[in-house]
Structures are given as C-alpha cells and as structure tokens.
Specification:
- Helix content is 93%, strand content 0%.
- By secondary structure, it is mainly alpha-helical.
- The protein has a single domain, classed as F1FO ATP Synthase (Up-down Bundle).
- It is rod-shaped.
Length: 98
Amino acid sequence: MVYAIAMGAVLLDTMVHAVAVGGGLVAAGLALGGGAICAGVGDGLAGHATITGTARQPEAQGRLTTIMFLIIGLAEGMYFINFALAILFIFVIAAGVK
C-alpha cells in the first residue's frame, strides 16, 4: 500500500513537470509565432515606405535604402531576442518544476 502511494506521488510529480514543460512550449510557440508575424509586418512596412519614398524622390534612394536596412535589422533583432527568451523560459520552467 505504501509502495502504491509512493509510486502515485512520483507519477503525479512527473505529470506536473510534463504539464509545466508543455505549457512553456505552447507559450514559447505562441510568442515566437506572434513575433514572426510582427517582424514580417515590420519588414513589409519598411520596404513599402522605402519604395514610396524612392518613387517620390529618386535621388534619396541611397539614404532610404540604408534606413530601411537598419529598420529591418532592428525588427529581426527583436525577433531573435524573443527567440532567446523563449528558450530561456522553457529551460527555467523545466528546471524549476520538480
């Protein structure tokens, strides 16, 4: 009887750990999906603004292209920071729940 209770406690702890890690993975997936969509929208808006600016003022193409690449780099940088934090949160949740 005591062995059955002890095994039940071990299985419960394992189940709690699995649910916590699964929740962390779902949350990381949602955050990364939202970050990817927002990075894509940001890249598209920067490209649109560059094309519009070049159409209105062709001599400013060099400056506008430089600014566009800076903006795209910042938008993609935010996504990679989001990715790093998602990985960190998954490992912290996995290590914290025992």
